[in-house]
Amino acid sequence: MEILIWGGAAISLIGLVGIVWVIVTVAKARRAGLEDAALRARLQKVVVVNLGALFLSVIGLMLVVVGVLLR
User: Where are the domains positioned within the chain?
Assistant: First the structure.
């Protein structure tokens, strides 16, 4: 069960890195002073990465919980 715990932690960490990347990207886009349409286009591309990162974080945390429960 150690593999579930450490694997889940690694997957959660990858998801967390993705979430931080999304935050930084959105902050840069807002500071760039883009027009509304250009800002929306850039943010629509980031939404997909955001959802993927959140998915990875949740799956990783689920693996950690399952690993701890089965221990």
Answer: 2-70
